[in-house]
Write a structure and sequence with these properties.
266 residues; alpha+beta; Diaminopimelate Epimerase, Chain A, domain 1; 2 domains; 18-stranded mixed beta sheet; 18 strands; globular; binds the ligand N[C@@H](CCC[C@H](N)C(=O)O)C(=O)O; Diaminopimelate epimerase; diaminopimelate epimerase activity; cytoplasm; isomerase; DAP_epimerase_DapF
Length: 266
């Protein structure tokens, strides 16, 4: 059976997108693993399914490269906004998306018929609290934030000193997070400018993480490092995050790009 897909990236965080209205996939966990592999698959950070919803315009399911399903993905939600508009699935520029962490609203920024950026209402960040990682770990303190999915933000003075391939997998499986956690290292460069690198649960090092950028902005404001609006600068690009503080909704703005269309046989 032939399946059409589109590879897309948001700030360098790349996923394989399949329109399940046309191609329902019975085994997305297995396909996410096989297709994400760089040499023998398509190569990606995971697999995203676009579907219908009784509660919103469309639905999103997101699978990491190890096949685990996540409840939310910031970069994929922006890419879905571009996909549904540019492939003619909608003419709306305000689109609702049903995710496992609730309904998100996407505002599409359209220029000459193309979506070049998307603002996502990411909802109200939750479970914000400092954590003590304990002795025996490479870092002692962090800030936990839920953006629908779990994050641990660790502030550092010098990003160059962070050995991400070594410490990322250890912290992802810290016992404080039984469902594993996405780990962000953050260095405040200036007011409103934060450098961030991420180790994603289920995918490892990625060039950007949308929910991770949101969690970083939240942790920066919560610790009085950077209140208000901030640019989160990642290896693959920058996202602008607007958040007025605890109990308020957070808005993420950033790019969405198509890489290529393809057909794969399963
Ligand atoms: N890259 C994503 C987050 C994807 C899911 C994450 N790895 C998890 O398991 O929670 C983003 O842009 O938010």
């Amino acid at each position: 059976m032939k399946i059409e897909f589109t590879k897309m990236q948001g700030a360098g965080n790349d996923y394989i997108y399949v329109n399940t209205l046309i191609y329902p996939l019975p085994n997305p966990e297995e396909l996410a693993v096989a297709w994400s592999r760089p040499h023998t698959g398509i190569g990606s950070d995971g697999l995203v399914l676009i579907g219908s919803s009784g509660k919103a315009d469309f639905s999103m399911r997101i699978f990491n490269a190890d096949g685990s399903e996540a409840k939310m993905c910031g970069n994929a939600s922006r890419c879905i906004g571009k996909y549904v508009y540019e492939y003619g699935l909608t003419r709306k520029t305000e689109v609702t998306l049903d995710t496992l962490s609730g309904i998100k609203t996407l505002r599409l920024h359209v220029e000459d018929g193309k979506v070049d950026a998307v603002t996502v209402d990411m909802g109200i960040p939750a479970e914000i609290h400092p954590v003590d990682l304990g002795e025996g770990y490479p870092y002692r303190e962090g800030i936990a934030v839920s953006m629908g999915n779990p994050h641990l933000v660790i502030f550092v003075d010098d990003m160059e000193q962070v050995d991400l391939p070594r410490v990322g997998p250890v912290l992802e499986r810290h016992p404080l997070f039984p469902d594993r956690v996405n780990v962000e290292f953050a260095q405040v460069l200036a007011p409103g400018r934060v450098r961030m690198r991420v180790w994603e649960r289920g995918s490892g090092i990625t060039m950007a993480c949308g929910t991770g950028a949101c969690a970083t902005a939240v942790a920066s404001a919560y610790t009085h490092r950077c209140p208000g609006e901030s640019d989160i600068i990642m290896d693959g690009g920058t996202l602008r995050i607007r958040w007025a503080g605890e109990g308020t909704r957070l808005f993420m703005t950033g790019p969405a790009e198509k890489v290529f269309d393809g057909v794969i046989t399963v």
